[in-house]
Amino acid sequence: MTAPNTPPVVSRREWLAAIDTLRVREKAHTREGDAIAAARRRLPMTEVDPSTPLVGGDGEVPLIDVFEGRTQLFVSYHMWHDGHRAADQCEGCTFFTGQVRELSYLHQRDVTFAVFCQGPFEESDRYRRFMGWEMPWYSVPAESHERLVAGRHFGMKAAYLRDGDRVFETYWTTGRGVEPMAPSYGILDMTVHGRQETWEDSPPGWPQPYETRGQQFRKNGRPTAQWARITAGHDDNLHGTPSRTGGSGCCP
Length: 252
Fold this sequence. Notes:
With 252 residues, the protein is an alpha+beta fold. Helices cover 30% and strands 19% of the residues. The chain contains eight helices and ten strands. The strands form three sheets. A six-stranded mixed beta sheet has the order 1-8-7-4-5-6. A two-stranded antiparallel ribbon has the order 2-3. Strands 9-10 form a two-stranded antiparallel sheet. Strand 9 and strand 10 (222-223) form a beta hairpin. The chain is globular, with a radius of gyration of 21 Å. The relative contact order is 0.18.
């Protein structure tokens, strides 16, 4: 295997000067991000039926109860492949959902985090337990899809506000808009080889083995997070029927 290319070697003084030059652009990027967030806080909102049913560990609950008494709710809409094993579930949704672990800082700011899964509760909740996740988890029954998803698709993230007995959707995003949920990407962006994905603007000879239709969440064809648990001996059969092969690769 050919070793990847590396950056040129310079003196520490030259290196620090190059970083100082880049830092100007980084600070401008940060300030622009702050300005976009300020605009996001000034968006209008739209009302959502607070009685919209969801299914949790204790059975059916209305949307307003998912707030757990807080005034804000952030929801990760998790795609699901009915009847498939854990290894065949959406790598993209798993990548983003699975990196939200410590919720106390959100709770401190009056925000509840929850996952709304497309699949049946018993099957998808077993996947949650297979992955070792502890966040609040709900299934979205078919009757609630239009009220919550409304022509969009699972894989999106959405924010809600509760005002007394009324609920409003204040923001939603999908695609690369969900990247704040994945600190792994932020860390990789600070490394010399970046995310190692084919779309990146990297110098010639940099390693870029990962395409972006689900392959970026797999190693040697196997889903990265799920396979670590399978090799540790965890049963990935969520339903008791034979596994299919392939998988969808990622959220749309």
